[in-house]
Every structure is written in structure tokens, then in C-alpha cells.
Design goal:
Number of helices: 12
Number of domains: 2
Keywords: ATP-binding, Hydrolase, Iron, Iron-sulfur, Metal-binding, Nucleotide-binding
Strand content: 15-25%
CATH class of the largest domain: Alpha Beta
Function: Binds and transfers iron-sulfur (Fe-S) clusters to target apoproteins. Can hydrolyze ATP.
Radius of gyration: 22 Å
Largest sheet: 9 strands, mixed
CATH superfamily of the largest domain: P-loop containing nucleotide triphosphate hydrolases
Protein name: Iron-sulfur cluster carrier protein
Shape: elongated
Subunit structure: Homodimer.
GO molecular function, one term: ATP binding
Number of strands: 14
């Protein structure tokens, strides 16, 4: 794969769209080429989408004629003018995603229930960024897998996907029977938008496009039979959280939400907002985790509460939700994430790894209780 391969493939796609489709209605949002597998995301209007519904089989054939392409993953997002939205539901601001989505034929598949064979979903959330939520989600998912649960891990952060790096995974998903196959990593089924686009690609999408992409990562992926799907949500209380609670309300009832926060007041203030969102959507709250709870000097072992200590425990008591445990701020946690091997697998006897495992056992018990 070379830059000239990508450039010539883009030229071929652009030529097809310009020659066959309505003028100026469709453009290339992102394109990657990895070991013969092309990943293409097209941005289009309603008129362009109508054309692609009938012509994307021909487009696929055109792309596969390129000597560097053997297979293709195709996704479609759309921007519709507000005037075209008359009579439709409000609140989208005139924009909506269109799911042509990763299908090898030119026909749209009928809508399916999200995750029909997944027993429970655990959403790992935070009110703000920078609190170590993704690291926590990955280590908890690995811990649940180590405990014997058939586990999946979904990176729901469309703007800043970190799962591929944290799992040390650089392969691309394949398509099977019209759906993406999750990548098996560390005994888990995993999926991220980061698997589909170049890591340098900025996802400059409006909220409805993010919701459409997240829906595809749930509906257009062959997750199979799972005991639990851990979802690493983006920080905040926005579109991704609302999409998840709406699409997977039944799965969340069997699982629930875990809130990650650091001990200081400013982080806890945002954590409260996360708790409020899940309460308003009637999502069970499994508990609050205090991450970066304290720091131990690797030389003298002196403990320092860099961000304070115990704030999350007090907040959990004030909100009347369970407190799940403390995770220290340690170099080993950061190194394991950067190296692509979660700490619970890299050093299972490490005190922080044991802390993750203890929380995972608590969550596993809660999943068992919900079945009773």
C-alpha cells in the first residue's frame, strides 16, 4: 500500500461519482487501504443517497477493479438540508445519518434489534475527559473475560477512539454476510471506529452522524452471543449517551452504568451530571469508581493524594449509589495502556490489577443478581 494507491483509488471513486451520480452530492469522507481491504466512508445528500442505494453495487465493482483492492467496507453518512426535513421529527437540526452501512450488496437490509444475542450491557461513562475512563473500561472488560464471561468491548467514542492503541490492535475488520466481524483481542470481541479509519483522520461529524455511526457499530457488527458488552462511552452527557440508552435500554436493564471520576471536586461535579443523565433515562447505576485515587512513589513508597482522596466514596454515599472501589495513579497503568497490553493481563498480581479484578467481581455479581 502506497500513497499513490490511495490517490489513484480516490480518483477512481471521484470519477465514478462525478460521471454516474448527481453533481456535487457525494464526496469522500475517509478512505484507508490496508492489505487489500478498502474502508470507505462517503458523505452525501438525500439525492446522492437515493442514487447510491441503487448504484453502490456498481461502485463496489468499480473499486474492486483497482489492483490494490480485494475487499471493501462501505459506510455512508448524509447531510440533508433543513428544508428537506419538513414533516419529519424535530431535534436533528436538519442533519441525519444514513446507514448504507458495510453491506456487500446494493439492497438495504431490514432493521434489526440491536445486539439480539448479548445478555447485558455495561456502559462505562464519565462526566468529563481525562479521568482515565477508557483505561478503566479496557481493564474491567479484560477482567470480566478472565472471570469466564464471554465479553465484548465497544469503543463508542467516535471523535477520539483509543481502543485500537490500548489493545495493541492494528488489523482491520472483515465483512461476513453483510456485517463486520469484531476483532478478537485478549479473549474479547472488540470494535471501534478507529479500526475503520486512518488514525490521523479527524472525524468532523455533526451529532446525528455520530449517532448514526454508533448505531452501526451496534447493529452492523456480528457481535454474536455475549454474556456482557462493555461500552466505553465518550466523556460528557451528549448524543452517544442518549443513543446508547435509547437503543439498548433492555440490555442496560440487565447491566447498567459505571461512572468513573477522580477525587477532586471539579471532576465530581461533572460525575453528578452523568449520574443524573442515567437516572433520567432509567438506566441502573452500578456504581462509582474513584480513579487516580492516590499516588505511590516507586522509590520510597510514600503515598500522596495528588487529587485529594475519598471524594468519590463520599459522593457515592451522597447520591445513594454503590461505591465500587479505588484505582491508584501509577506509571504501570499508563505504560500498559501505551504498550497495548492491559495491566490485568500484563501483571495480574499488581495491586492495581487486583483492584480492577475486585471491581469486576462486584460487577459480575450484580449481573448475576439481575438474572435472578
Amino acid at each position: 500500500m502506497t500513497a499513490s494507491d490511495i490517490s489513484s483509488l480516490k480518483d477512481s471513486i471521484s470519477h465514478f461519482l462525478a460521471e454516474k451520480g448527481p453533481s456535487g452530492q457525494t464526496s469522500i469522507e475517509a478512505l484507508t487501504l490496508d492489505e487489500g481491504h478498502a474502508h470507505l466512508i462517503l458523505r452525501t445528500t438525500a439525492e446522492g443517497a437515493a442514487f447510491l442505494q441503487s448504484a453502490h453495487a456498481a461502485l463496489e465493482e468499480q473499486i474492486k477493479q483497482h489492483p490494490s483492492v480485494h475487499s471493501l467496507t462501505l459506510s455512508l453518512t448524509a447531510h440533508r438540508p433543513a428544508s428537506a426535513q419538513a414533516g419529519q421529527s424535530k431535534g436533528t437540526g436538519g442533519h441525519r445519518p444514513l446507514a448504507l452501512g458495510k453491506r456487500p450488496s446494493g439492497r438495504s437490509a431490514p432493521p434489526e434489534a440491536c445486539l439480539p444475542d448479548v445478555k447485558a450491557v455495561i456502559a462505562v461513562a464519565s462526566g468529563k475527559g481525562g479521568v482515565g475512563k477508557s483505561t478503566t473500561a479496557v481493564n474491567l472488560a479484560c477482567s470480566l473475560a478472565r472471570l469466564g464471561l464471554k465479553t465484548g468491548l465497544l469503543d463508542a467514542d467516535i471523535y477520539g477512539p483509543s481502543l485500537p492503541h490500548m489493545l495493541g490492535e492494528d488489523q482491520k475488520p472483515t465483512v461476513e454476510n453483510g456485517k463486520l466481524r469484531p476483532l478478537e483481542r485478549w479473549g474479547m470481541e472488540t470494535m471501534s471506529i478507529g479500526y475503520l479509519v486512518d488514525k490521523k483522520q479527524a472525524m468532523i461529524w455533526r451529532g446525528p452522524m455520530v449517532m448514526g455511526a454508533l448505531t452501526q457499530l451496534m447493529s452492523d457488527v456480528s457481535w454474536g452471543a455475549l454474556d456482557v458488552l462493555v461500552v466505553d462511552l465518550p466523556p460528557g452527557t451528549g448524543d452517544a449517551q442518549l443513543t446508547l440508552t435509547r437503543k439498548l435500554s433492555d440490555k442496560l436493564q440487565a447491566g447498567g452504568a459505571v461512572i468513573v471520576s477522580t477525587p477532586q471536586d471539579i471532576a465530581l461535579l461533572d460525575a453528578r451530571r452523568g449520574v443524573t443523565l442515567f437516572e433520567k433515562t432509567e438506566t441502573p447505576i452500578l456504581g462509582l469508581i474513584e480513579n487516580m485515587s492516590y499516588f505511590c512513589c516507586p522509590h520510597c513508597q510514600e503515598r500522596t493524594d495528588l487529587f485529594g482522596h475519598g471524594g468519590a466514596r463520599k459522593e457515592a454515599a451522597a447520591l445513594d449509589i454503590p461505591f465500587l472501589g479505588e484505582i491508584p495513579l501509577l506509571r504501570e497503568i499508563r505504560c500498559s495502556a501505551d504498550e497495548g497490553t492491559p495491566l490485568v493481563l500484563r501483571d495480574p498480581e499488581h495491586p492495581a490489577a487486583k483492584a480492577y479484578m475486585a471491581i469486576a467481581r462486584t460487577l459480575m455479581a450484580k449481573l448475576s443478581d439481575s438474572k435472578a
